[in-house]
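User: My advisor asked me to double-check a structure prediction for TetR/AcrR family transcriptional regulator before group meeting. I don't want to rely on an old file, so could you generate it fresh from this sequence?
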Amino acid sequence: MARPARFTADDILDGAARALLSIGPSLTIADIARAIEGPSGSIYHRFASREELLGRLWLRSIGRFHEDLLEAMALPDPWAAIAASARCVPDFCRRHPAQARSMLLFSRARLLEAGPASLREDARGVNDAIDEAQVDLAQRAYGAEADARLEVLSVAIRQSPYGITRPFIGREMPPWLDDAVVAASLAIARLEVRPD
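Assistant: Sure, here is a fresh prediction for TetR/AcrR family transcriptional regulator from the sequence you gave:
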């Protein structure tokens, strides 16, 4: 009879997140083994390679962030939802520094292009729920102009808050950062969109 596994996949991913926070992206499987206080073999039993493990960590961190972002995007008032979506980025990163650091490891495009084959399907769909929620939010905020303003909304609630927050990941995030991302996001979301 096989001995039960001592470490779950989540135990290993938690250890990898801790090691990443203390060591940085050059962490090794040995570093992760030390973080979980177990042998490297336990890691390789769950993950075929370091790249697969870190890719899974990225996917899990993005998924957890998306839970908070979807909640913010679903607020009944669309402009409150835009503000909450922006604020969600520094707030999540401040509350979950290891997951925030993990979100810097990859991008969806990088995993799709060069990541392990075992991750590509999950990477392909990682943003599906957010994309759907963004379409819904655009319709609520802009009505008949929703299609024309969808790209602007994406910059307002996704690219801008993350771009402003990203340099602060891994160090103390100043309290004014929340107001900054909200101000930028609302200003972008209210931009007039002129036809070409």
